[in-house]
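Researcher: Go.
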Amino acid sequence: MNGDDVIKRIKEDDVKFISFQFTDVNGVVKSVDGSLSQVEKALKDGIWFDGSSVEGFARIQESDMHLVIDPDTYAVLPWTPKEMRRARVLCDIYLPNGQPFSGDPRGVLKRRLAKMKEERNFIFNVGPEPEFFLFLQNGRDTIHPVPHDVGGYFDFSADDEAVQVRTELMQALTEMGLEIEVGHHEVALGQHEIDFRFADALKTADNVLTLKYAVKAIAAQHGLIASFMPKPVFGINGSGMHCHQSIFSPEGENLFYDSQDPYQLSTLARHFIAGQLLHARALSAIVAPTVNSYKRLVPGYEAPVYIGWAQVNRSALIRIPQPYPDKPDTVRLELRFPDPSANPYLAFNAMLAAGLDGVDRQLTCPEPLNRLNVYDLSEEARQELGIEMLPGSLFEALTAFEADEMLQDALGESLTDAFMKSRRAEWEEFRTHVTDWELNRYLTTA
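Model: Structure:
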């Protein structure tokens, strides 16, 4: 699409307002709203805004920034009322001198993918599986997370309101351009998953962003709270965002496929696996970026803890899903430790950089953990096999990231500084906060 196409669509869709959107370093959606009278000018000249008030963007003396609209991201927000119909476009961020802003998560990923396609003839595809909870709204100031339903994995009830809400969500996302594959109840009470078809990493990151705020908006209309928090409830499964990855040629050939390999994996795929395993501990800071993320990444709840790969072993960090017979394009790598609190632009950028480092250095892929339940091994046995663990806390993950120059280079200095400042601040706030668990444990016993 171009600017003229957007104007035409706006008229056809009877849109009254446009939201010009972008994200901060943590993946939080920021929006500047405009009336129709401003759209043509914005499409031509962009929109100026104050970047000093946005997390990780600019100092006060360097505040002016420029939003440049990506017309291909136009979509109507189906849940908005007809008389106030609203659409959105995503934007890239530029400096006053016309240069791309190096702290724009979407722009950095976009440029990395374009450079890779030009230099390597690679297209990086991602198919995520974002999970979320629907909770009852049971308070104004504080919310105690009470699951909205009592279903289990793949459960269905025709009169279940959760099914109705999920169906409405899938319809809205379809109208916004996502190619929805399946939606279903997940393992935990109140937990759901909506999967959409894989696409190149930029489009997929846009889709993750779209899914998250669409789910939240529609849930709110039903008096519910949608949460993408990795571990909102103690004692039950948390929410992950498993990411299926592949590299295609521009002609549509899956470069991860090799019919002669026992797992149908090409040499490229094996090097890619090796790179992600090598950088896994540092990568966790980006793909599992909150204090709460590490409450999910513990043994016993179907989340990976140990660094390794396998075809059928779901305790492994990277799993090779069974491809469809005679369909080379379905060969892929499933990275299982990302969660939906991650900024998808940063996550996909870092995932790609880690994999390509393995390709460039031709790293040897270790043996798979196919018949080994790593959860059952003693610490001594794991050490003997050379199986490392993911970090046990955000602090540990950030320490690993600070030591990984390759991943920092992938994000660039601006994004790295902004990300580390934000995540260190979260850790410090958590470290000094007194929790209910501590009060229950120590108030009368210490």
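Model: The CA atoms of residues 127 and 198 lie 4 Å apart.
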